[in-house]
Amino acid sequence: MENIYLTIALAPLLGAIIAGFFGGILGRTATHTITILGVLVSTVLALIVFNHHVLEQGAIFNQNLYTWMQIGSLNVSVGFLVDNLTSVMLVVVSFVSLMVHIYTIGYMHDDDGYTKFFSYISLFTFSMFMLVMSNNFMQLFFGWEAVGLVSYLLIGFWHHKESAVEANLKAFLVNRVGDFGFLLGIGLVLSFSGSLDYMEVFSSLSTTVGVELWGLDLITVVCLLLFVGAMGKSAQVPLHVWLPGSMEGPTPISALIHAATMVTAGIFMVSRMSPMFELSDVALTVVMIVGAITALFMGLLGIVQNDIKKVVAYSTLSQLGYMTVALGVSAYSVAIFHLMTHAFFKALLFLGAGSVIVAMHHEQDIRKMGGLRKKMPITYWTGLIGTLALIGFPGFAGFYSKDMIIEAVHFSSLPYADWVYYAVVAGVFITAFYSFRMFFLVFHGESRVDHHTAEHLHESAPSITFPLIALAIPSAVIGYLTIDPMLFNGWLDNAITIDAAKHASMTELSKLFHGAAAMIPHALQTVPFWMMVGGIVAAWMLSLYRTQWADWIQKTFHRTNYTLESLYGFDRFNEIVFVDGIKKLGNLLWKVSDMGLIDKMAVNGSARLVGFIGSVIRPIQTGYVYHYAFFMIFSLLIILTWVLFAGDNPLLQIEF
Amino acid sequence: MVSLSDYLILSAVIFCIGLVGIFVNRTNIITLLMCVELILVAVNTNFIAFSHFLGNEAGQIFVFFILTVAAAEVAIGLAILTLLFRNKGTINVDVTNSLKG
Fold first, then answer.
1. Whose CA, among A84, A337, A568, A642, lies 20 to 30 Å from B49?
2. How many CB atoms lie within 10 A of CB A619?
3. Do A626 and B5 touch (CB under 8 A)?
């Protein structure tokens, strides 16, 4: 199996290297064939791994393959830990990546950076594999930074656009904040366990009991710091600001990196660290609350967005919030379940949005669309499936995962869990509302497309529609097929630790669960379902039936509207406090410390001091030989006198 | 009988004359050279006196060396003096202060 794991990771890397260095020579067709083949190999092997580990319950593979460095007793290795959690992630990542690779053929068709783009997304796939297969913190951090790097490169892919460059800088900087916390967390882990290997760290967790740091349990501090890293990567409030900006990048990467895979790395990481997080109720509560805030408030922002990709981006933020909530209530497998379903339907929605954008000649404003249903039937139907999956329509993938999250919160005994429950239930209404608002505005109603574009409006090329269809199928059925084994029949049991006595959500859920089919009729009696229906109806009323009501609401509640449109002022706050603050700090350091202290005091000051001392002692050097001779002899006299009379000089005792 | 201390006193007197000559002389570099010679003579006197009274001839050998070196030094000193006079037109000590800081 070891060779299979290696091949999974290295095939996309090989593709990336070939595409990156020889893309120009090989040409477009050869480049995309090679990279797609690389990812296809990974996908097939990932399915084999999934079959081996999950379906046939093969033994966990945990082995170091290569010693990177050995410092004293600290061993930093490149190694793979492949269990069921990794297997699920491998399948999701490789499948979505494969679809995005294929989609890119159509989407980037006219772009000059065609081969470069393929090289980047293959490199991303490699990095993501290294991240999920890692068996130690150092490799996790390597993958973590590598996906961040590729994300940075791809957000700024169209670097001639100033907004793209600003967005990738923002993404880079905000992620540094998260990574700083993450790195501190890793450092603390190393300091208490003396190892970076997951299994060694988990087995030394008992040493942390009762140890305090900064007034908190050590394990709480460690978990919170690691979660700061997850907040950066998985875009949780307040480190979410980079994700909407990342929509400046080409749509395929929004689907692959900023919806399906990279942003879920934080969720994956927390699930991987479940033995640690289980020990700290404080950390779990923080995780849950941050998730709830993200889920509710980022969803609200989706309502006022008019850029098709921004709507989906805020929806992604909101769904990431849901996953984080699931982590907080110790329903790690539910979080991974939602991660998986979300990867499929959100990649589908993004790729669908990309299909619309291509057809609209890169017009992204949904107010200038409308009535695209007839012109783009495949995009329409796949988009509908994606939207239904997103809002959790009974039977679709998102329904199972989201319902489970809400129920898990319901059973949680953590403090504030009841508030979080209201937030996630309200989130269902909001999700349905903004999703269908966008859906109706794009595909239904009267066409507001301008005349010129309307003439050329047609369904996208097969390379674009094929991934849509291929993603629509799992978006529809994956929840129904996998909820039972994944959550209640132990698919993830060998990777996730839950302290069932303290955190009973999963146990309670399994008591309530009577099969995937039974959930659908049962849903009709639950609040979330009617919230969702309410959301659809509200969206229909405001965007199709009576559009003037939307204007009226906007005017009446202009203050709320302003708050939402200014994105709660996070950007403004960051700009004033951090950007301007750091500029001022920089000015201060420049003027006071650099110019004043270093230049004036240290450099020029020492020069002037030497000059001053010189001017004081210069008169001594008269140039007269007899002065020098006088000094020499007089000094010699003093020295000799001192030598002669200091102490018991044997010379004084000589008698002649 | 002349004792060692007599010689030493004589030597010290010559040394001091040479020393004072260097300090107080403000007119002539030739006088400076002569004062240096006086100091050397004082040292030589010491050497010979000790050599005699300690019964060790090495001191007298030293004196020969010192006399040779002193002769060479004076030769070079006078040559420098000639050059100095050619360039500055004077051998006054107070004028030759071009090393002044």
1. A642
2. 9
3. no
Cα A269 → chain centroid? 11
Nearest CA of chain B to the CA of A636: how many Å? 13
Closest CB to A622 among B4, B25, B100: B100
Task: Indicate the helix (H) or strand (E) that contains A459.
Answer: none
Q: Is A632 on the interface with B (CB under 8 A)?
A: no
Annotate A582-644 with DSSP letters as a single string.
Answer: HHHHHHHIIIIIIIIIIIIIIIIHHHHHHHHHHHHHGGG----HHHHHHHHHHHHHHHHHHHH
> Which member of B19, B25, B98 has the closest CB to residue A633?
B19
Tokens of B49: 């006196």
- C-alpha A155/C-alpha A161 separation (Å) is 11
Angstrom distance (rounded) from CA B4 to CA B56: 14
pLDDT digits (tens, 9 = 90+) for A285-339: 999 999 999 999 898 888 888 888 989 999 999 999 999 999 988 888 889 999 9
Q: Are A296 and A376 in contact (CB under 8 A)?
A: no
Helix, strand, coil % in chain A, rounded to nearest 5: 75, 5, 20
The CA-based diameter of chain B, rounded to the nearest angstrom, is: 53
- pLDDT value of position A43: 93
- Buried b vs exposed e over A137-150: b needs ≥16 C-beta within 10 Å? bbbbbbbbbbbbbb
- Tally Cβ neighbours within 10 Å of residue A59: 11
Pairwise CB contact (< 8 Å): A623 & B100: yes
CB < 8 Å to B25, chain A: 626
Please state the φ and ψ torsions of residue A279, each to the nearest 5 degrees: -80, -10
A618 close to B (CB below 8 A): yes
pTM score, whole prediction: 0.79
Q: B96 to chain A nearest CA, in Å?
A: 7
| Cβ contact B97–A630 (<8 Å) | no
The closest of A311, A5, A256, A2 to A120, measured between CA atoms, is A256
> What 3-state DSSP class applies to A504?
coil
- The three-state DSSP-derived secondary structure of A409-433 is HHCCCCCCHHHHHHHHHHHHHHHHH
Q: Are A443 and A380 in contact (CB under 8 A)?
A: yes
Q: In this complex, which of B19, B53, B100 lies closest to A656 when CB atoms are compared?
A: B53
Q: Which of A619, A623, A626 sits opposite B99 (nearest CB)?
A: A623
Separation in Å, CA of B34 to nearest CA in chain A: 14
- Burial-class residue A194 by CB neighbours within 10 Å (0-12, 13-18, 19+): middle
For residue A82 the two structure tokens come to: 């492949």
Contacts of A64 (CB under 8 A, 6+ apart): A75, A77, A78, A79, A135, A197
Q: Report how many Cβ contacts below 8 Å link chain A to chain B.
A: 35
Chain B CB contacts of A623 below 8 Å:
96-101
Predicted ipTM of the assembly: 0.73
Q: Is the peptide bond before A238 cis (omega within 30 degrees of 0)?
A: yes
Q: Where is A466: in which H helix or E strand?
A: helix A462-483
Which of A513-517, A550-554, A557-561, B18-22 has maximum average pLDDT? B18-22
